Amino acid sequence: MDERKRARISFNPLALFQAASEQYRAAVASMVVGTVSSLGLIYLSPILQVGTLNQPKALFPLTNPGIVSIPLSLIVAISASCLTGDRPAIEKLDELEQRKSQIYQVTYESQISRYTI
Question: How many CA atoms does the CB half-sphere of 46 hold within 13 Å?
Answer without folding.
Answer: 6
